[in-house]
Amino acid sequence: MAAVLASQSYCCCNMDLMNQGRAMGTLGFSSSISDEFTRFDWQASNRPISAAKSIKFHVEMRQTELPSKLGGNGRLGINGKVSIKKRDVKMVPASEVMNRKSPNSNKVNMVHGSRQVVNGASIVKRDPTPALSKTLNFRDYKELPPLEDLKVLPSDEGFSWANENYNSWQRTVDVWSFVISLRGRVLLDNAKWAYLGGFTEEKQRNRRQQTASWLRESVLQLGPTFIKLGQLSSTRSDLFPREFVNELAKLQDRVPAFSPEKARSLIEKELGAPVKILFKEFEDRPIAAASLGQVHRAILHNGEKVVVKVQRPGLKKLFEIDLRNLKLIAEYFQRSETFGGPTRDWIGIYEECSTILYQEIDYINEGRNADKFRRDFRNVKWVRVPLVFWDYTAIKVLTLEYVPGIKINGLDMLDSRGFNRSRIASRAIEAYLIQILKTGFFHADPHPGNLAIDTDEAIIYYDFGMMGEIKSFTRERLLELFYAVYEKDAKKVMQSLIDLEALQPTGDMSSVRRSVQYFLDNLLSQTPDQQQTLAAIGEDLFAIAQDQPFRFPSTFTFVMRAFSTLEGIGKILDPDFSFAKVAAPYAQELLDTKQQQRAGTQLLGEIRKQADDARTYTISMPYRVQRIEEFVRQLESGDLKLRVRVLESERASHKASIRQMGTIYTVFGGTLLNLGVTLSNQGNQIIANGSFIGAAVFFTLFLRSMQRVKNLDKFEKMI
Ligand SMILES: Nc1ncnc2c1ncn2[C@@H]1O[C@H](COP(=O)(O)OP(=O)(O)OP(=O)(O)O)[C@@H](O)[C@H]1O
Predict the structure, then answer these.
(1) C-alpha 290 to ligand 1 mean position (Å)
(2) I need a surface site. Which of 224, 348, 436, 607 has the fewest CB within 10 A?
(3) How far apart are CA 713 and CA 477, in angstroms?
């Protein structure tokens, strides 16, 4: 079949692509009718394709269902090689391919590349039968965009942290200089506002903005540990002002890359063989560099295109030095009023961060996470998770299937492919709802760099270093919280928050309850067109938390942050996007489940009642049973409880008055004792003796009172 297809095919390829002379690329094609696609490996010689006599396609084993209109019937496994003669190849400049509709095509030729690279091709199947004369649109499926078009990443040379032989003392000095400067800046800002006064809100914002920019630059200078912590802090709107959070979020794109020599030597050390033996091809220039590692493209000997994520050399040692200092910093912040002092749990935050950091530098852990995440979504066709190549993976090297896509916020590219943006936005949120409500295993960092869109509008996930898990216990509590919010019941909301350890119960919770009630009233009284964004709701929540004994667990803040990031992405993709609309069926499902549970409980109650009634009729009721029933009735109506309560409070007040008398006896006894001593010193022995006797009587009375209190306590324990 493949041969037939080839012999009858006419191919037009993108000239830019042809002239690159790359040894290998992959093209895919999709039928414009069925939208099923087949993948082709495009093999050419090392010289430019324009100089080659023919272009060979190695057809991959993916099955396709050729539409019957095209002569196909049912499933078809295509395997083998397809050669297309050069005279059948028409070269078209990339720009033309992108904008032009081929005369026989009912679709614009597909373009690809998350980095503005335009590669496209189409095959026009020539067939004498008019019914079969259809266009099959080719699209480069796993094409490696030319490196020249990729952004050149800044190098890490010149940064002190890039040198692996860290001098522990020098590093400590660098870190503490930063902390002292930060403290100085914050103190100066506070002093200016307090003493000079007259600062408008806008001026304060500008000043905060300056400090935030300074902080981002300093963090970049301090290197991986601080960059990662900065990125993590950009999720904590509950801890830092908005300007800081926004600046720190920019760290995502600004991390310098390390040299290919370092990358190659680390791969060799980790995988036990030189790169040129391990891979058929390995690109020295990384396609991305992040705080903890960088990503290189490569091709395995079997032709599989992969990405190799290589960890920054010497990270563990750097973490050890930095975390030692960070612990001291957290302890210092905990004591310092400037940094929120005892109202913030800095030590707890330090511990969370250190756990995350160590988890993130274990790529085996990341690979396992990717596998689990892929399993969770195996039945959801529109979510794609790269495969892990375990034979090429170690603690510091992770090799994954190369699954390129368009960045989820790359609007121009999405539009040029005719993608349905609103569907993409809904899918992004829905995938997240599945993680939170169903699988309980969620991607804790779904920023736009970690989400891309595949050729069939599927969502591709990258980076599984930071995953969150919602244990079934927590999930149940979260559901309770959801139901309580739905029922607008502030008391239940508070109880769920206490169970989730998000709220610390203190003596007087009335102010917290008022804040929660206010929040609920505002949240639920809105009409659909007044609905706040999730980000705004999150901010309200965090604002409430500022003055209350709340400490949101990191899981909660990650979930909130993830939802508001995705909601932001949703709004960029589709201005009419509504989170509530996507979430509604899930919320309804949860409410239905609750309803069913309630119905189940009611049924149980009914059965119990009927059993009781049956017993009433069949068993004769002697006097004793009647008494017991009367007793139970009183218990149920609360009479008995009321009386017990009265007795309890009576006993408590009785004890308090005995204690009060005891105190009075001691005061009198002490005074008489003092008087006796003074009189005795003055030689007035007879009156002094009288005072001593009086003192003895009062002390005896005091001892008796204490004994009575003790007896009452004993009695209370007995009943
Ligand atoms: N399997 C893949 N196929 C194609 N591109 C990939 C793949 N994995 C990663 N990338 C690209 O590399 C970039 C960085 O990858 P990744 O997020 O996994 O690195 P990271 O070091 O964990 O970064 P960070 O922790 O800062 O998010 C991604 O945004 C994506 O563009």
Answers:
(1) 8
(2) 607
(3) 38
